[in-house]
Amino acid sequence: MKLSKFLTLDNTETFLNAEVQQTYHSQTGAVEEALKKYSIPCKIKELARTGTVRILDMFFGIGNNSAMAIDVALEENPDCKIEIVAVE
Fold first, then answer.
1. Domain boundaries, the chain
2. Which three-class secondary structure state does DSSP give residue 75?
3. How far apart are the first and last CA of the chain?
4. Distance in angstroms (rounded) separating the CA atoms of residues 69 and 73
5. pTM score, two decimals?
6. CA–CA distance, 7 with 18 (Å, rounded to integer)
7. Do 27 and 15 form a contact (C-beta atoms < 8 A)?
8. What is the pLDDT along the chain (88 residues), one digit of tens a residue?
9. Dihedral-angle region of residue 61 (phi above 0 means left; psi in -120 to 50 means alpha; beta otherwise)
10. Quick one: 23 exposed, middle or buried, by C-beta within 10 A (0-12, 13-18, 19+)?
């Protein structure tokens, strides 16, 4: 398998598998992927309005999803309490 680094539209990196011409993550980048595939489906903005967001982040990795959730929650409610349990 031949892998090469691939620079996405938001300047984050992923890998391209040359054999199947597929990237491992979205070509638009980690920022949009974390927002559209994690924060929006988990309704982080709506939870932030309640004052508390609790997140169980399975397979934390480098933390993109949790970081995006924090940004979204604090943008919606700067006083929001955020609790994260991350499991690798």
1. 3-87
2. helix
3. 25
4. 6
5. 0.83
6. 14
7. no
8. 899 999 999 999 999 999 999 999 899 999 999 999 999 999 999 999 999 999 999 998 889 999 999 999 999 999 999 999 999 8
9. left
10. middle
DSSP for 32-74, written as a single string: HHHIIIIITTTTHHHHHHHTEEEEEEET-TT-HHHHHHHHHHH
User: Position 84: which residue type?
Assistant: I
**3-state SS, residue 31:** helix
Instruction: Report CA-CA distances (Å) from 46 to 17, 35, 51, 63, 74.
Output: 37, 14, 10, 21, 11
- Which helix (H) or strand (E) segment holds residue 14: the answer is strand 13-17
Vertex 14 angle, CA 11 and 20, to 5°: 130
Distance CA(31)–CA(66), nearest Å, equals: 11
